Amino acid sequence: MMRLPHFTFHAPRDVREAADLLASAPPGSAMLVAGGTDLLPNMKRRQQVPSTLISLRQVASLREISNATGLTLGAGVTLTEVVRDIRARCTSSAQASKAYAGLWQAAAQVATPHLRNMGTIGGNLCLDTRCNYYDQNYEWRKAIDFCMKKDGETCWVALSSPRCLAVSSTDTAPALVALGAEVTLVSADGTRRLALSDLYRNDGIHYMTRQPNEILTSVHVPPLEGWRSTYWKLRRRGSFDFPVLSVAAAIKVAADGTVEAGRIVLGAVASRPIEVAGAAGALIGRPLDDEAIAAAAAATAQPAKPMDNTDFSLVWRKRVTRDFVAYALRELRGDDMREVRLKIARQLF
Ligand SMILES: Cc1cc2nc3c(=O)[nH]c(=O)nc-3n(C[C@H](O)[C@H](O)[C@H](O)COP(=O)(O)OP(=O)(O)OC[C@H]3O[C@@H](n4cnc5c(N)ncnc54)[C@H](O)[C@@H]3O)c2cc1C
Ligand code: SF4
What we know:
Elements: E1 8-10, H1 15-24, E2 30-33, H2 39-44, E3 52-55, E4 65-66, E5 71-74, H3 79-88, H4 93-96, H5 101-108, H6 113-118, H7 121-125, H8 138-143, H9 172-178, E6 182-187, E7 190-195, E8 215-221, E9 227-234, E10 245-253, E11 259-267, E12 274-275, H10 277-281, H11 290-299, H12 314-333, H13 338-345
Helix pairs in contact: 3-5, 5-9, 11-12
The structure holds flavin-adenine dinucleotide (FAD) and iron/sulfur cluster.
Flavin-adenine dinucleotide binds next to strand 2, helix 2, helix 6, helix 7 and strand 8.
């Protein structure tokens, strides 16, 4: 049985107290814990070994959801609550396809119901990057002399790589980037708000621009104003696994039926969600017909650079990226894609 290392535990009641605790801890010694569904297994495997844990579960303000302008979610809102809230706003399947559907589909496909009951939107956005050489127990990692991300020097995925190529595996980040979301970060020094896209770096170790003393307090999704969104996920076990490829797409269609604006974001192909501006650009000013969809899908082939450090063959994952982009756009066009989704969930590729 893997045991947690020893640590000091704090349970602050408000964000200010949490920020002060974070600021007063020696550099690198303290970590925040929300649902603990990622951090605690990582601590058991000694991938992360904070000597102090600051829990956010008692901070009531982080559990708030507001529909005043768009959708604002406190970082401590659980993924189950995200799914429930968006579902509650939809009275028909037609509405469901519009009301933040991409976020709903992404949150609903994270892990298992138990993990979604504990896991929070903030924890999901700050999720550690993943790699087959890193997500192993201590003895396994020691046997290969560790790796650059923790305790070692070499990247076993690309021996000459100067940086870690561990994979961004959060489901909700690509969906929220596609929806143009922003996040608020609070520290003892102040508050800042930034585009969610700017929270991420393409570096498997330093994958966030969040400072160590900052707490992600809320996620702001702008009003829909005609945007529609969707999320497609590839994984081995349809009810459990992390994504090894995901596609989040959001578009706004003008009254004449042409695409006015769009965002296409790939997940699990790099150390951060990758927005492919060229793919969305291929749609602008055109109706969402087969030709436009094929052009957008083709534009994602080059930026999708999966590495050989997650499940399935990387060549195949790269090849099916186009198919997944096409599925997402066809769904946004209104095609009935339930059969395709079912086949993917059952691995009938
Ligand atoms: C078997 C299994 C399957 C999983 N499958 C998936 C999957 O398919 N898709 C997926 O996306 N995830 C998956 N996960 C990972 C995890 O369950 C989810 O990502 C979950 O949303 C993490 O949220 P949490 O609140 O539990 O985060 P925690 O574990 O509490 O924290 C995760 C990280 O975020 C930091 N953090 C948490 N909250 C904040 C905050 N407010 N501000 C700043 N930093 C913060 C923590 O310090 C830590 O580094 C899986 C986990 C397991 C064990
Ligand atoms: S990509 Fe390389 S450095 Fe990063 S976790 Fe994997 S093996 Fe380690």
